[in-house]
Amino acid sequence: MSLFICPICQSSLLLAADTWRCDGRLNLKNTSHPFDVARQGYTNLLPVNQKKSKAPGDSSDSILARQRFLANAHYQPLRDLVCAQIKALLSAKHSTGQIDKSSVNWLDIGCGEGYYTGAIAQIKGIDSLIAADISKPAVIEVAKASKAAKRLWQNVDKQDNNKAAIYPIVTSAAHLPLSTNSLTGITSIFSPILPAAFVDVLQEGGYLVIAKPDIRHLASVREALFDEVREHNSDKFLTELAPFFEVLETHKVNTELSLSEQALADLLTMTPYAYRARPEKRQALLAKAAVGTFNTEAKFVVYILKKRLL
Ligand SMILES: C[S@@+](CC[C@H](N)C(=O)[O-])C[C@H]1O[C@@H](n2cnc3c(N)ncnc32)[C@H](O)[C@@H]1O
Ligand SMILES: [Zn+2]
């Protein structure tokens, strides 16, 4: 069984440099569905009927703002924590012999422009890393960065066991074009959490690593933007995951940020605050950063879950 399946008929996808093509075995007419590989190296596996809008997911503006913001290492402590946790999970699996000769496949769902994906790709022991997002501009950025790092599936050195091959794909998290039980783990970093879809593609004992903003995340930014700041750190997703996953660990990480006007503007563009705040409040906040830096604290929580024996 191949790792990727056709988003239309669920038959195995055969990967070639310019087209991914299903073998059509699972549709009545045995029709083979082709998916072109874009020149940047990503594949669009989102059928038109799963596209709920013309350009689903994060816009190009918000992707580029996030890319600029993250390039300044503001969220590096979170990235380091996520990678350290994945490393520990994989080495525990190795030492108990749970990883044998089969490949280690990891999915970064809602990967955005790939800030976390690029770091995950450097973890020894991951063979295939699927960088998936519903936003085409996001996946284009991941493909470009993966190519530059020589980790794109088309040009990675297959003999080099330390190198994960990155497969950038456009897809909806709700309809993952991946085989049942094919994944060792999934990361969802500030991204959608779809219990049924995740549980299907994860192997038994597979991992789910979730990062979310913690209570009081960017509190001083929100206080400046809104008259009333409501904390909605809902644990509802944990209740929804509970039948399928056990929580192994929870970690918190906080980081002080001292932001320039540009960094603050980028932060506002990459978060939902930008369009919820009144324009005059937003302008007043940016004016504060223009005459010095604006200080705030980013607060994150990372959940490590494991798929139950079902
Ligand atoms: C807040 S961003 C996080 C991006 C990245 N993980 C990061 O932290 O930098 C959420 C991402 O999820 C994507 N997304 C939203 N809904 C999605 C869906 N149904 N399926 C796949 N991706 C989705 C968005 O396009 C966006 O890139
Ligand atoms: Zn097909």
CATH topology of the largest domain: Rossmann fold
From the helix content, strand content and strand pairing, which structural class follows? Answer: alpha/beta
Distance between the termini: 21 Å
Relevant CATH superfamily of the largest domain = Vaccinia Virus protein VP39
As a whole number of angstroms, the C-alpha radius of gyration is 20 Å
Helix content: 25-40%
- For the largest sheet, list the strands in their spatial order: 4-7-6-5-8-9-11-10
Order of helical and strand elements: EEEEHHEHEHEEHEHHEHHHE
Average pLDDT works out at 94
Low-confidence spans: none
Strand content: 15-25%
Number of strands: 11
Number of helices: 10
Overall number of domains: 2
Any idea of the CATH class of the largest domain? Alpha Beta
Task: Please give a structural write-up.
- This protein is an alpha/beta fold and 310 residues long.
- It has helices spanning 60-71, 76-95, 115-120, 136-148, 195-201, 219-225, 236-241, 261-270, 273-276, 279-290, and strands spanning 13-15, 19-22, 34-36, 43-44, 105-109, 128-133, 165-170, 183-189, 202-213, 245-259, 294-307.
- The strands form 2 sheets. It has an 8-stranded mixed beta sheet, sandwiched between helices. The chain has a 3-stranded antiparallel beta sheet with strand order 1-2-3, with no helix packed on it.
- Strand 8 (183-189), helix 5 (195-201) and strand 9 (202-213) form a beta-alpha-beta unit.
- The longest helix is centred in the first third of the chain and has 20 residues, at 76-95.
- The mean pLDDT is 94.
- It binds S-adenosylmethionine and zinc ion (ZN).
- Zinc ion binds next to loops.
- S-adenosylmethionine (SAM) is lined by residues 57-58, 66, 110-112, 115-116, 133-135, 138, 172-174, 189-192.
